[in-house]
Amino acid sequence: MRREQQTVTGKTERVNPLWTLTATEIAALVRGRQVSAREVASAALARLDAVNPAINAVVACRPGEVLAAADATDARIAAGGDPGPLAGVPVTIKVNIDQKGHATTNGLRANRDLVADGNSPVVDNLRVAGATILGRTNTPAFSMRWFTDNQLHGRTLNPRDASVTPGGSSGGAAAAVAAGIGPIAHGNDIGGSLRYPAYACGVHGLRPTPGRIAAFNGTAPTEPSIGAQLMSVQGPIARCMSDLRLALAAMSAPDARDPWWVPAPLGGPDFPRRAALCVRPDGLETEPEVEAALRAASARLVDDGWQVDEVDALPPLREMVSLQLILMFGGDDIRAVRSAVYREGDPGAINTIERVVSKLKDGPSLADVSSAFRLRAAALRKWLQYLETWPAVLMPVSSRPPLPQDFDLQGLHNGNLTSEAQLTQVSLPVLGLPALAVAVRDPEKIPSGVQVVASRFREDILLAAGHSITGQDTPILPVTPFDA
């Protein structure tokens, strides 16, 4: 098995080491008995051991559990059973959802002993699909920052460039996939937490429609706020569209614990291959590198038969940013949230909550929340009508290339620049629309990417556009980090 620990360019007995393969390729090999799930798991563990110390993407891994799960898959195959569509595929789980026997830390010292006695729906669904859970990935404290660092697990580094953020809050998930620690990672997104890490690490991240993937944490002391219920989603990060599609199907299985789950089909009616390109939505000051990525993606769509129309304006986005805070904290005592953040003492979380408090003061009133719902409905109506003409909309993930580490902590000006850059990430969850971050990367430079938006439950349109942008779904190769 030592051959599986070599780099992509190294000489091995196998043309492609197992850890470089896509989930689609691995599942086909395991189902066809060309390789065992244990071999795949052993290769994934070896890769984790080789590169994770340099980036700290995975913060908990129990090799015995990993190998036992792989052996169970092999036994099922030997007995003639169906091992599932993700047979033997190593998958990581973000440390803010429940996995039986593991702490749901959410990056908090206060939660270091909050051990789950059951799995979240996502974990159960992935296991039923045959996936091998490889480990748990890092998140910032409270999962509410675009940088991944906390006082319990430490800082996660971007495997492509340690000087820039791996994104947040699913920074550990994206860094793991980029470095070849499993071809699929679970993450979640309430304001960019799947899309920005994928963008920063040069991989792909899918934010599904709310209700598509069931969610529930038995360790949570209360039900989520109404804003979280409306906007928070679970989803996958991967190195190709085929793997995102495979993961989405597995994660979307029903679970009665989530009353918001919707039995929506994974594919919809035929649609015109027509997209709108907006480089500067709502006056966003998009930097040249980001604009270049958008135009490259647009050209690839055209080359694959899409009609792309450049537009100067889109339905409302900027207005949704203020609504996000109102819906997130409406009905909650913002002072109590602030107190919890200060008890944890994490500098990044304190900086974030102080920015929230400065905008909301004592918290939104019932009238504020009611008004937010009316404004949201009006904006969503405009978006749904717009998407009937252009089924896909191409826009920035962020107006800037991936930000330097701790950029948000370096004064009020940089904090404001950080928030402004992420306009599209924050606004789309308020509308409940699905979105896809697609890597468009020059291998010699810091990663860049684009965001595609579609109508509700039309993830199939997003993946079709992503397939075209990535050159008929050419997988991104894992990178070996700087110090590994």
Describe the structure.
By secondary structure, the chain is an alpha/beta fold. The chain has a single domain (2-469), classed as Alpha-Beta Complex (Amidase signature (AS) enzymes), CATH 3.90.1300. It is 40% helix and 11% strand. It has 16 helices and eleven strands. The chain has helices spanning 23-31, 37-55, 63-78, 121-128, 171-178, 195-201, 226-231, 241-251, 288-303, 318-329, 334-344, 347-360, 366-389, 411-421, 423-431, 459-469; strands at 58-60, 90-94, 132-137, 184-189, 204-207, 233-238, 274-277, 307-310, 392-395, 435-439, 449-453. An eleven-stranded mixed β-sheet has the order 1-3-2-4-6-5-10-11-9-7-8, sandwiched between helices. The longest helix has 24 residues, at 366-389. It is globular and about 60 Å long. The two termini are 19 Å apart.
Mean pLDDT value: 95
Query: Strands of the largest sheet, in order across it?
Result: 1-3-2-4-6-5-10-11-9-7-8
CATH architectural name: Alpha-Beta Complex
Total strands: 11
User: Can you identify the CATH superfamily?
Assistant: Amidase signature (AS) domain
State the CATH topology: Amidase signature (AS) enzymes
Taken from the alpha-carbon principal axes, the silhouette is globular
Helical segment tally?
16
Low-confidence stretches: 1-14
Distance between the termini: 19 Å
* Percentage of residues in helical conformation: 25-40%
The Rg value, from CA coordinates, equals 21 Å
